[in-house]
Structures are given as structure tokens and as C-alpha cells.
Amino acid sequence: MNSVFVYCEIEDGQVAEVSMELLTKGRALATELKVKLEAIAIGYKLDGIEKDIFPYGVDVLHVADDKRLAPYSTLPHNAIVVKLFQEEKPQIALMGASSVGRDLGPRVSSALHSGLTADCTSLVIGDHEDKKADKVYENLLYQIRPAFGGNIIATIINPDCRPQMATVREGVMKKEILDPAYKGKINKLDVSKYTSDLDFVVEMIERHMEKSKINIKGAGIIVAGGYGVGSKENFNLLFELAEVLGGEVGASRAAVDSGYIEHGRQIGQTGTTVRPKLYIACGISGQIQHRAGMEESAQIIAINTDPEAPINSIADYVITGDVGEILPKMIKFYKANTK
Amino acid sequence: MKGYKIIILAKQVPDTRNVGKDAMKADGTVNRAALPAIFNPEDLNALEQALRIKDKFPGSTITILTMGPGRAAEIIREGLFRGADDGILLTDRAFAGSDTLATSYAIGQTLKKHGNYDIIIAGRQAIDGDTAQVGPQVAEKLGIPQITYAEEIQAIDKGMVTVKRRLERGIEIVKCPMPLVVTVNSSAPDCRARNAKLIMKYKHAKTISEMQEANDDYLHLYNDRPYLNIKEWTVQDIVVDPNELGLTGSPTKVKKIENVVLQSKGAKVITSSDEDMDQLMRELIENHTIG
């Protein structure tokens, strides 16, 4: 009872990155609150999945294993999570803010009449005083997130309803194993008791997923391009610089939406959050939604033809000029100085 | 004529996408009042999907449902100009302070009262709250399936809707029975432009509140042309438990809001000259950022 729960997304039999990041955060919260960390894994052929989950310090893993539960679909996953939460009464429930979490989270929270805060960038435990009701709440989860297009940061709380639910995007929390030898308990759920035929009315006709070859989240150096790069071909220059420096290529949403580059490289509020030691922003204006995904980079170089581009205000180096002229020089002088 | 009853869930939002210099106050925070109010972009993508269904099935009707203050009627008119058939403005002070749950409760009760829906289509998320919660929560309140991240409603046949979803790493095509809720991404086709004939037809469309403020000259119009009446519903028109509305009905509460202040880091401004570029690369190598 009263535990911290993390819903683990399963992709191709693996626990998703964002879920492991949340298990790490969940463990920290559970420790602070002096309660258990519990996890839920719903899918198919999940024997042995506990090996990937227990090391994060999970005390109980609830598993629902059935052919009809993979790939993810709303109704059966929702039915299982809702019933389990009604039985286990968690105080906090976390999910990744992915297409799965943002589909499942709201449905679960509606069913349980609990509060859900989406896309949290920070989660801390704190107290709250409701002066009007003359009540003090202790150990609430502060759900901190940007809103209004990223122009404000809001701290949201759920004083009365349970569980306090939050979704968090990939890359926001750090992933860290607690103890490779940590052993918890497994609770195998009888799927027939948690779902009904009505939960399986949606048919999957086709599914084409690319294996993510790109891992910009882990890159120490990122060369990112925005709308200002101008074309798919012009992005080749960024790839060249990235290769020379040993980094990865990223992009703003505008560049992805314009078809210059694939979505997997998108950085920002609706893409990935990154914290490289060097971020080179090429032709990126730096709207708040993009900055949200890269402002914690150790060093930022902004290259833009607009001397007043918003990105300049968070950069360490500002170069006003053309990407096509500047990048070749960077390549040339990097090579010259590393001979 | 075959047709489906489509409801669009739409929201009027401040345009937070391109906060220009005019909307920035001297202290670096956003002046919300200076932002224009628009039809939430992904709700327009939703409307376009509905219009395409109506193109294929001319007997269909499209109703725009929006919950908001009186001026939200503007987006209903906008929907009518693009091809929707009618609208409902759900407006009441009792809704003030609603979080997504209280909002979807009110919308759910409204839809239960309205009855008559085959497909409910909404944008995935609004650009002010950015939560993407209302669509799925409304589906849960109505006890019907939901398909989120939709890019295209491909077909409707024998009571089943085929939807193409665009997810992070690829696409899915699913088939779901009606009635259902579909939420649509911005990767879906843009909404078609306003139609001149429809603008002429609907430019005087108003809610009761707007009519009461308006010039007497138009009042006879509304009796002669009922399609110019935009329904305005309050809590009196739907069945609600007042404890589920507004701030009281919202499990989430805002504890604190901090403005994001754009502060200059004190950047080093350099040129694209050879000397500066050489110097830059040397510095980065020296402090072990690269190399």
C-alpha cells in the first residue's frame, strides 16, 4: 500500500529507456518517503524481464503476460493498471511521457479520479499549506513542468486525490542502477481477471517501427540544425562537422517539420532532452520549446544570421553569419589545430 | 445519404507559438494579454479530418464543441467558415479553474446530454496547457475507445474506423468500432482555408449572449435563419454534480507559477573571420570540450 509505482513501457521485449529513468527517480522518491518502489510490466513473453528491472531497486514487479497485450493498446493496459491501482492504492504513479504514457496516463487518471501532470521536468517531495481549509499536507509530490508554450514553469500538486500521477519525457531524468543484485518479488497477474473481451475491440492492422539507430541523448557533442539550414542537402555539412568532432546531429522541430531531417533527431519539448558538453546550434532561432530540450548543455555555440535570435541569449559563443560559410571553417581549423 | 455525426472538441487558446518582442514585457516575462486568441492548431487538424469524412459521406454533420468564456464563440464561427455545420459553446463561471479532469467531466456530461455522436475528434493537445489529457479523459468518461496520435482517418466501413497513427519511431494502422474519440497530431494535413460562401452565410452567427450585446437590426435575422444561432449551454443545460466542476472538481492544483525570464548569459560575440574561427577551435580544444 502507498507505494511509488512506475509503469514500464515494453518495446520489443525490452524495458524502454524512459521507464528505466523513471525507475531511478521512483527509487529516490520511494526512499525519501520510506515506502516501496513497485513496477508494472504489461506485454508478451516477459519471462526474465525482472532482470532488467530489479537492479533499479524495485521491491515488487507486477507482470501481465499475454499475446494480446503487445504491442501496446489502450483498453487492456488501462484495465489492468486501473484495477491494480484500485487494489494496491499507490500514492505516486509515474509513466514516460511517450505516445504510450500520454495515451494511457490520462485514461487511468480519469478512471481513478486522480490528478495527472504531463511532461514534468522535475519531481520533488514537499509540504503544502492550504490556508483556506486550514490544512497542512505533508510529503506531497511537487510536479514541476513548463506550460503556456514553455513561457512559464508551474508547480502542480494533488493534495487530496490518489495516486498523484505524473508523466516525464525521455532524457529528463537520469538513469542509474541501484544495485545489480537487488531482488524484489514478482506478482504474476491473471490477465483474465483484469481484462474483459470488450477491452480487445481495437484491431492492429499494420505496424512499421524503425529501430532507433540514433542516440543523440548520449552524445557528448551535438551539432543541431534548424529551419535556417535551409534544406536536406545543407544538413550534410552538419553531418560532416559532427563526424569530425565525434558528435551527433540534432535538429529543431522546424527543421524536422520541413522535411530536412528525421524526427529521431528532434531536440526540444516534443523531441529529446539533451545535456551535451557542447551544443552547436546552426540556423536555430531558439524558440522556448527548443531551448527546453538543450539549455542545460555545458557550452552552447549559436550560429545564426539573425543577431537577435533568442538562442543567442543562452549561448556562450554567438556567431552572426551563414552556416554554409562558418561550418567549413570550423572543420578546417579543428583539423589544423588537432594535427 | 450516408453520413456520420462528428463532434470536434476545440479550444480557443492564446498564440504561444511565436512569442515575439511585442509580447515580452520589460522584465523578460510574457504579457499573455498581448497574445492573439486563436483556434488551437491541432484542433484545426482535427476539423480537417472531419471535413474529409464529410467530403466522402455528404450526409455527415460536424458540430464544434468548445468550453470557454464568451469570446470562444469566435472559433465556432471560424469552424463554420471552413465547413462545420453548427456549434455549441459551453460556458459558465462554474467551470473557472478547471484542470483537465474537471474539463473532461464537463465536456463528457455535455456529450452525454447531446447524445448523437459517431466520432469525436480533437487535436492531440492545446498549445497553452500542452497536456494532451482532455481527449483520452473524455473517452474514459464516455466509456468509449480512444485512438491518439492520429495522422489520418483512412476509412469508415461497417461501423469500424481505420486510423493511421504516427508514433515516435513509425506508424500504426488500427481499426476501431464507433463511437470513439480520435486525437489528431499536427503531422496530419492542415485544415482547408475558409470558404467565401460560408463566410457570407455564417458571418452573423452568434450565441445568445452575443446577440444581446449586438445591434437590434440583426435580431430578426436569427428568427429567419436558425443556423445563425450558436448554441450556448451553461450548467443549467447539462446534468452535473457541482463538486466535479471548476477548482473544486480539480484534483490538480497550481501551487506556484514562475515566469521564464530570458536572461543573457553574457555571450562572447565572434565573427566568421578566419582568425576568430581559428581562435574558437583552439579554445574549445584547450578546455577539452572537443578534441
Enter the CATH topology name of chain B: Rossmann fold
What's the main sheet of chain B like? 10 strands, mixed
Order of strands in the sheet with the most strands of chain A? 7-11-6-1-4-5-12
What's the CATH class of chain B, please? Alpha Beta
The CATH class label of the largest domain in chain A is: Alpha Beta
According to CATH, what is the topology of the largest domain in chain A? Rossmann fold
**Largest sheet report of chain A:** 7 strands, parallel
Radius of gyration of chain B: 23 Å
Q: If classified by CATH, what would the architecture of chain B be?
A: 3-Layer(aba) Sandwich
**Based on CA inertia axes, which overall geometry of chain B fits?**
globular
- Strand order in the largest sheet of chain B: 9-8-7-10-6-1-4-5-12-11
Assign the CATH superfamily of chain B: HUPs
Q: How helical, in percent, are the residues of chain A? A: 25-40%
Provide structural commentary.
The complex is a heterodimer of chains A (339) and B (291). Chain A folds into two domains: 197 residues, Rossmann fold, CATH 3.40.50.620; 117 residues, TPP-binding domain (Rossmann fold), CATH 3.40.50.1220. Chain A has 339 residues and is α/β, with parallel strands linked by helices. Helices cover 25% and strands 29% of the residues of chain A. Chain A is globular and about 65 Å long. In chain A, the strands form four sheets. Chain A has a seven-stranded parallel sheet, with helices on both faces. Chain A has a five-stranded parallel sheet with strand order 15-14-16-17-18. Chain B is an alpha/beta fold. Chain B is globular, with a radius of gyration of 23 Å. The chains are: A alpha/beta (339), B alpha/beta (291). The interface between A and B is large, with 90 and 79 residues.
